[in-house]
# Entry
Amino acid sequence: MHSVVLKNDAVGDLVHSVEAINNITTHSSNNKITVFLSNLSKNYSFLIKNPKVEIKILNYRLNFIEKIRLLFFLSKKDIKNVYILSPKKFYFFLPLLFRKKKFFALCINNIGNYKRPSLFLRKFLYKYEVNDREKIFKRKSTRYLQNKLTTEGNVVSKGFNINVDKSDVINKYLPDNYIYFHFKKKIFNQLDWKIKQLDLLFNEFGKYTKNIILTKDIEVDNNNKLFSQKFNTYNYKTEEFIDRKKNILFLDNIVGQDLFNVIKYSKKVVAFHGMMTNLGFLLNKPVLDLFHCNINSWEDYRRYRNSFYEFKPKYNDYDFIIPKKNMEKTIAKIKFSLKKCLKN
# Structure
C-alpha cells in the first residue's frame, strides 16, 4: 500500500508538519510513502529522511503541467491514502476524482464564513481537522492538529529526535558556547534598526555568551558585504573564511543541514518569528522569538493573533517578546530570557 503526502510549503510550515509526517512513516504499515515538498523546502528534506520515503519536488504554487502530472501520479492503483497537509485549493478537488482513495486533510475556516474547502467538498474527505482562524480565542496549533490527523485514536505523538552529521565546515569553524541570531532585513527596516542597533544587541548577547553566530536571509544585499567587512565570515558559495579576530561569526549563504546544526548546537536561538524559531522549537532549543507586529487595524490584530496561536510552541525554554523600535527598550525586555543562558 502506498501513501502520498502533499506538503509543498515554505520551510517554516514544513517544520510544523515534520512530526505528522513522522507519524505516517512510523505508525502505518505502508510499504512506500511519497512526500511532495516545494522548491523552497527541498534543502530540508533530511528532516523526514526515512527508507520508506521518496521525495518529489513541486513549485510552491503549482503550474498547469504540475497539476496534470500530479493527477496522473495519483491515478496509480496502489495509492490508498493521501494526506493534504498544505491546504491549497486545488488539492481539495482531488477526492472528487479519486473516490476509492482515503483523503486526510488540514482544512481552514476564516472570518467572513470563509471555508477551505467548502462544507460540500469536506464530505469527500475520509478524515479532517480544522484550523479555525475565525475564532480569536486560544486554540490548538497547526502542529497539534496535524498530529491528531495522522495518529490513530487521536493520540498526539510525543515527538522524535533528528540527528544530522556535522560537515567539515561546521566542525572547523563552529565555536562552543554561542548565541545564534538570524538577521531579517525586512523587519530591521520596519523597526528602523541600523548597524548601531545590531551592535547594541550583540553587546548585550556578549554578557551571556562567549560567541555569536550570525546568519541572514539568502537574498544578496549590501548587508552581505557590510557583515563580511565587520565580522569573522565564512562564505558557503566561495568557500572562503575571513578572520577578523572577532567573537562574531557571520555564516554567509548557509542553508540546509549546516544551518540546522548551527541551530542544534547553539546555546540559544534569537530570531524574528519564522523559519529559524520553528527549527529551534523542533529541536527543543531555548528560543527567544522576536514576534514583530505592525498593527494598524482590527484585521491586522486578528492576523497576528491567529499566527501566534497557530505556531506558538509550548515548552519552558520558549520565550517571546514584541520588539520595540527603541533598541534600549527591546534590550530591557529580552534580559529575562538571556539570563537563562547563565544557567545552562
In short: Residues 139 and 309 are 6 Å apart (CA to CA). The mean pLDDT is 89. The chain has 13 helices and 15 strands. The radius of gyration is 21 Å.
